[in-house]
Every structure is written in structure tokens, then in C-alpha cells.
Recover the amino acids of this structure.
């Protein structure tokens, strides 16, 4: 697979039926019906929605991947269906990967969360803290497939909020990866080394396009997380986190780079040879930092007689309205935010900034636009 060719032709290749942030079972069902591969219902959610699984390929490397364990993290699901399109588009690549790998893919593990656009399942449980208890039907479905399929590699596909930057660089974290720890000491075990090598390969390829915008997710050990649990069972496991690129709140841009990451990872696995485990690049990836807000208004006066100016941070709430995700601006902080960055920054130049009704701004206010020097400034993306 030629990555440049893929990126240039992406708009023709991608699964055009999936777009935006609201991706549910209903969204993917027509795509599933068109697949040349077998799919099956592998279980049901709390609210009895089907959980689908797709198996393809006949290679010796068994790769298990699941997406939308957190129902509102839909970008990687779009990338999965883009991947099926790539297999159709590039026969040579398809033959190669499917000869080397057997893939088992769960596109939406938490269909109730997807439907309600929530991180949690219908019992308000975070499935990514249920890996030991297996208290939820969705957790048990994943565990049953894990036991039956007996993977050599696991891809844990997620989406991260817009709050993350890459280290202290001032660049947003558009994608992050992690080879999760499998013990408190964060030991670099053999399976972690393999996961780190694959991450290093993805990073090297993607960093040509997303220069400086790739981070490493927090690696604090928590055995209740699925990635940490599967890693502790000796299976190289990789966390993928789709993040924010510029004004792309629908995450149509980053889905393409997650697709590239998946293609690169599968290529690495197909060519993998245990003797050449070079993961040194993994250690060069800077950690994610919580350093971004959606908008920062700089040097604002809250009251006209204020002596000192402040910064105003605004973050979007993602709200499901009529089967679409609306981004509702809300004030998160009014303070000196010089160590933070805004995806959008507005300079107030020590002028008074008021709410749309002319009242004084307060933290937690929902606010579609502000008055800056009596001029309306819209805040919605
Ligand atoms: Zn997640």
C-alpha cells in the first residue's frame, strides 16, 4: 500500500456512508451487508442491541480489534469501514494482508453508548474499567471473543478529547498511541516491546503528515482497563486514540490518519520478525499533556473597572440533538491561562468581554457568542 497514493485518493476510497460523530449500529448496518466478509452477531448489549463481529483473512497472525467501547468515540469505527474499502481498492495489498493475517473486528462494542452518544454503557458502567469484573454483557462479549480467537495482537480503538497537547510543544495531540503497562512497575516485557515496535512504525509513517501532532497516552497501570489486562496476559496490545485536527470537530480528517495507522500496523505485523524488535523510536514520542481548550479569549476584562486582564477558556459540550452532535460552548475557566493553548485564540486587547445578553461572564455559563467591545463574536465551530 502506497500511503501517498491512499492519502491523495482518500476521498474516493473512504466509506462515504459514514460521516460525522454520531455513528450507531444503524449507521453501520448497511455497510456490513455490503461486505465481502462474514459478519455475525456475537452478543447483545444491556438494551439488547446486537454487537457485530467480522472475521476476515486466513493468515497466521491473529489480530483482534474493537472500536466504540466508549460509545461516543466513533472516529475509529469510520476508519474500520474505510479499511474494508481499501481492501476492495487495492487488491494486491488486500491479498498480502489477508494471507498474512486473520482479523477479528468488533466495530461497535458498546452499541447502547453509541446510540445515546455516551462514553458509558446503558448501566452507566465504563467498559474500560470492567476488564476484571466482567460485570457487563459487552465486557463478556469481548472477553469471550478474546478467549475463542486467541489473538497474537490486540488493537484497542478509542477517541480522545480536544484537551490534549503533545508534551510542552504547544501542538495539539491529533493522534496518540500507547503500549499499555501490564504491571505497576511498567515493566518492558517482550509483548510490550512488540507493541512498542508497532507503535514506533506507525509513528514514523504518520509523523511525515501530522508533524509534531502525535503523542503518547498516559501509561499509568490499571488492571481494570482492557488494554492493561490483555497486555498482562502476554498479548501485544496497542491503544489508538483519534484526536483533534484544526477545526475538524466532525473528525473526518483524523479518520484518514487512523486508517493509515491501521494499515501500517497490519503491514508491520505481516512482516514482523521477532529478532528485529526496534522500539527505540517509541521513547521519542512525547507524552500527552492536558494543555488545550477549544477556545481561549486572551487579555479580557470581565468588568470595565478591572485593573488586570484575564484569559477566558471555552470548551464545547458535545450534545446529541436530532441524530446530530451539536457543539455547545461553555466557559470552563476565567484565569491566567498562559500555560494553556486554544485551538482557536481570540485577542481581546484588554477590552471588556460580556455575555450575549450583556451580563458578566461566569464559569459554567453556556455561551454561543460573546460581546467584545460590543461586537458579536460567535463561538460555535
Ligand atoms: Zn475511550
Amino acid at each position: 500500500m502506497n500511503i501517498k497514493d491512499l492519502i491523495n485518493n482518500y476521498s474516493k476510497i473512504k466509506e462515504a456512508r459514514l460521516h460525522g460523530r454520531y455513528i450507531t449500529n444503524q449507521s453501520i448496518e448497511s455497510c456490513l451487508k455490503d461486505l465481502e466478509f462474514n459478519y455475525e452477531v456475537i452478543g447483545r448489549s444491556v438494551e439488547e442491541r446486537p454487537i457485530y463481529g467480522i472475521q476476515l483473512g486466513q493468515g497466521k497472525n491473529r489480530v483482534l480489534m474493537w472500536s466504540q467501547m466508549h460509545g461516543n468515540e466513533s472516529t475509529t469505527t469510520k476508519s474500520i469501514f474505510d479499511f474494508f474499502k481499501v481492501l476492495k481498492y487495492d487488491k494486491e495489498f488486500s491479498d498480502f494482508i489477508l494471507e498474512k493475517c486473520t482479523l477479528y473486528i468488533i466495530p461497535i462494542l458498546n452499541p447502547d453508548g453509541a446510540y445515546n452518544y455516551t462514553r458509558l454503557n446503558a448501566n452507566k458502567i465504563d467498559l474500560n474499567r470492567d476488564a476484571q469484573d466482567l460485570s457487563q454483557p459487552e465486557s463478556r462479549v469481548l472477553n469471550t471473543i478474546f478467549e475463542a480467537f486467541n489473538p497474537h495482537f490486540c488493537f484497542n480503538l478509542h477517541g480522545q478529547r480536544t484537551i490534549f497537547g503533545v508534551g510542552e510543544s504547544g501542538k495539539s495531540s491529533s493522534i496518540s498511541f500507547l503500549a499499555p503497562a501490564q504491571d505497576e512497575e511498567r515493566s518492558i516485557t517482550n509483548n510490550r516491546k512488540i507493541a512498542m515496535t508497532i507503535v514506533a512504525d506507525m509513528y514514523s509513517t504518520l509523523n511525515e503528515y501530522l508533524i509534531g501532532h502525535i503523542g503518547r497516552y498516559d501509561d499509568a497501570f490499571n488492571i481494570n482497563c482492557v488494554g492493561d489486562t490483555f497486555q498482562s496476559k502476554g498479548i501485544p496490545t496497542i491503544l489508538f486514540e483519534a484526536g483533534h485536527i484544526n477545526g475538524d470537530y466532525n473528525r473526518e480528517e483524523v479518520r484518514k490518519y487512523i486508517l493509515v495507522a491501521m494499515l501500517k500496523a497490519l503491514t508491520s505485523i505481516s512482516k514482523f520478525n521477532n529478532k528485529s524488535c526496534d522500539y527505540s523510536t517509541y521513547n521519542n514520542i512525547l507524552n500527552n499533556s492536558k494543555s488545550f481548550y477549544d477556545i481561549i479569549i486572551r487579555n479580557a476584562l470581565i468588568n470595565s473597572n478591572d485593573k488586570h486582564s484575564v484569559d477566558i477558556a471555552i470548551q464545547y459540550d458535545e450534545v446529541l440533538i436530532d441524530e446530530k452532535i451539536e457543539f455547545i460552548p461553555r466557559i470552563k475557566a476565567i484565569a491566567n491561562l498562559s500555560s494553556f493553548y486554544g485551538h482557536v485564540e481570540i485577542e481581546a486587547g484588554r477590552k471588556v468581554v460580556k455575555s450575549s445578553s450583556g451580563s458578566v461572564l461566569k464559569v459554567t455559563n453556556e455561551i454561543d457568542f460573546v460581546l467584545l467591545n460590543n461586537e458579536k463574536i460567535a463561538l460555535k465551530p
Notes: The longest strand covers residues 341-355.
